[in-house]
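Weekly structure sync, notes
Attendees: PL (lead), two postdocs, one rotation student
Agenda item 3: pending single-chain targets
PL asked that the sequence for the first pending target be pasted directly into the notes so everyone works from the same version. It is reproduced below exactly as submitted, 95 residues in total.
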Amino acid sequence: MKLELAPTDRPSLPRGVRIQADKVRGGMVLLAPEKAIQLDPIGEAILSRVNGKASFDEIISDLAETYAAPKDQIGTDVQRFLVGLRARMYLTVQS
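Predicted structure, written out during the meeting:
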């Protein structure tokens, strides 16, 4: 299975995986069955746009506009982050 996302792919969180506020430590965590992953502000910014409706390219464009950063650099960073989640089955993709 190819893990890299194509521009038109629509990433989403699978059943049982969600983002939630961590009331003890503060910040946000990605919760999966028997796992809790502390998100830094960048991870939170990326995952807040992962909704199953926005394409990978739309997510990158929105982040580039929001943070006034080069789209190519944002694309590389977001791709790396989402591929890591997809490899651990914390992310699904619809073509």
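Discussion points:
- The chain has one domain: 11-88.
- Strands lie at 10-12, 18-21, 28-32, 35-39, 92-94.
Action: rotation student to compare against the earlier draft before next sync.
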